[in-house]
């Protein structure tokens, strides 16, 4: 018979102890969020339902990793001559240490932080307190980011963190985010800081630390947000509210407005990754100005703009999106902003001939989870595909789909000027 699962004991904060379990004020919460597998190490190592692992009193020894020429957070240009492998940790045995008389064997098929961490962990029969310099009492979420500069994949990481905060009642407490990677600085770093405040790179730690409450976060690829077949995404509106609140926005905006705002997102060449130094971006509009002018003429009472999101701060991106009634864009990471559109708004996603729309349901799923109105169109005509990954979109296609979305949103037709 399998032994009963053990959960971390509750510790009361008092003048003699600074160790206390913020998230175990309701022990049933933790039990619900933890996996059905048994816990290990007398409750100090617990698999979680989100694919992550909770570890109590995890020791990190920064001397036990192979060094590279970067530590994380440097300028993108410092990475141009580096192999991508230098952006990821290569652990020696003992980088992580845990007081444990068992020798748990938890395996992961993917080369994630969890699989590499389990290989690097050294189990101790007794703690050598002489080697510890710092004790971190605040919950620390350890993350190895993937596609760190891609808004969609970053959104799945932010959602993963939010789920832990929500499930364990940590939203009102200070938490640490520890990047267990060495990626360069990106335009999304400020978003991490706005949402979670305390951000550190593991490779910049100079001495041993004991993390009283550590979470190894699952890969973003394992996020529920990446499961596009889900009918509903847990906490999606709570996540949206949390996100907007941290940027100072009201989440009660709706599309019941006198002015209809149509926003085109333009994809243009832009250097955002060390492995794409020429900045070539796929899935671009070949006829931006034509589409913009045609839409303004067809719907003169609407406010119509086109924008390259990278030219705006993230705060300004949110300001634009939360005021958008209909969002039009090529399939791409910028459409992750669907999560922040007003309730009841519309989304028009466009695919070039060389992208399979059926296999790329990221933003169709987001629109479904938020109960937004969604339409899509894929080009099948080779003559519309131009050099440098540009696609010419017939203006009548765009105008007709705007009409369809308006009907879905308001159940009435709009004045529609004929094409000139």
Report what the structure shows.
- The chain has helices at 27-33, 113-120, 151-167, 189-196, 236-246, 288-298, 314-321, 362-369, 395-410; strands spanning 45-47, 53-60, 96-99, 121-124, 134-136, 140-143, 176-179, 198-201, 209-216, 261-265, 284-285, 303-307, 326-330, 346-351, 373-378, 385-386, 390-391.
- The strands form three sheets. Strands 1, 2, 3, 4, 5, 6, 7, 8 and 9 form a nine-stranded mixed β-sheet that branches. A five-stranded parallel β-sheet has the order 12-10-13-14-15, with helices on both faces. It has a three-stranded mixed β-sheet with strand order 11-17-16, with no helix packed on it.
- It has two domains: 22-226, no CATH class; 236-410, Flavodoxin domain (Rossmann fold, 3-Layer(aba) Sandwich).
- Strand 3, helix 2 (113-120) and strand 4 (121-124) form a beta-alpha-beta unit.
- The chain has nine helices and 17 strands.
- It is an alpha/beta fold and 420 residues long.
Our count of domains comes out at 2
Q: Classify the beta-strand content into a percent band.
A: 15-25%
SSE string: HEEEHEEEHEHEEHEEHEHEEHEEEH
> What is the number of E strands?
17
Tally of alpha and pi helices = 9
Give the termini separation: 78 Å
Question: What is the helix content?
Answer: 10-25%
Shape: elongated
Major beta sheet, specifics? 9 strands, mixed
What low-confidence regions span 5 or more consecutive residues with pLDDT below 50?
Answer: 1-26
Helix/strand/pairing category: alpha/beta
What is the residue-averaged pLDDT? 87
Over all CA atoms, what is the radius of gyration? Answer: 24 Å
Pfam family, one: Glyco_transf_61
Domain Glycosyltransferase 61 catalytic: 232-347
Protein name: Glycosyltransferase 61 catalytic domain-containing protein
GO molecular function: glycosyltransferase activity
């Amino acid at each position: 018979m399998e032994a009963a699962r053990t959960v971390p004991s509750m510790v009361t904060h008092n003048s003699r102890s600074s160790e206390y379990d913020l998230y175990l004020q309701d022990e049933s919460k933790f039990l619900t969020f933890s996996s059905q597998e048994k816990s290990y190490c007398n409750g100090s190592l617990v698999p979680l339902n989100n694919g992550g692992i909770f570890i109590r009193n995890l020791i990190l020894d920064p001397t036990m990793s192979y060094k590279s020429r970067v530590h994380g957070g440097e300028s993108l240009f410092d990475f141009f001559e580096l192999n991508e492998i230098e952006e990821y940790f290569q652990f020696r045995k003992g980088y992580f240490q845990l007081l444990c008389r068992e020798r748990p064997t938890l395996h992961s098929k993917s080369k994630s932080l969890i699989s590499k961490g389990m290989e690097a962990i050294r189990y101790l029969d007794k703690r050598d307190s002489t080697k510890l310099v710092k004790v971190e009492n605040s919950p620390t979420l350890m993350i190895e980011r993937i596609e760190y500069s891609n808004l969609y994949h970053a959104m799945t990481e932010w959602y993963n963190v939010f789920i832990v905060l929500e499930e364990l009642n940590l939203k009102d407490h200070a938490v640490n985010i520890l990047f267990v990677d060495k990626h360069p600085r990106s335009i999304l770093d400020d978003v991490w800081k706005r949402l979670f405040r305390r951000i550190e790179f593991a490779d910049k730690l100079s001495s041993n630390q004991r993390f009283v409450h550590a979470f190894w976060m699952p890969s973003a690829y394992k996020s529920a947000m990446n499961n596009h077949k889900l009918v509903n995404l847990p906490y999606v509106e709570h996540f949206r509210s949390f996100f907007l609140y941290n940027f100072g926005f009201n989440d009660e905006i709706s599309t019941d407005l006198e002015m209809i705002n149509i926003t085109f997102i333009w994809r243009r060449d832009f250097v955002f990754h060390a492995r794409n130094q020429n900045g070539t971006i796929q899935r671009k509009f070949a006829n931006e100005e034509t589409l913009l002018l045609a839409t303004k003429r067809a719907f003169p009472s609407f406010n119509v703009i086109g924008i390259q999101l990278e030219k705006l701060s993230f705060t300004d991106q949110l300001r634009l999106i939360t005021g958008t009634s209909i969002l039009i864009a090529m399939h791409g990471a910028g459409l992750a902003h669907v999560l922040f559109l007003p309730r009841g708004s519309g989304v028009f996603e466009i695919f070039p001939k060389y992208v399979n729309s059926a296999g790329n349901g990221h933003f169709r799923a987001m629109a479904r989870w938020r109960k937004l109105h969604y339409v899509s169109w894929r080009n099948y005509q080779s003559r519309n595909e131009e050099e440098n990954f540009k696609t010419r979109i017939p203006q009548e296609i765009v105008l007709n789909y705007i009409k369809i979305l308006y009907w879905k949103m308001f159940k009435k037709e709009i004045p529609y000027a004929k094409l000139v």
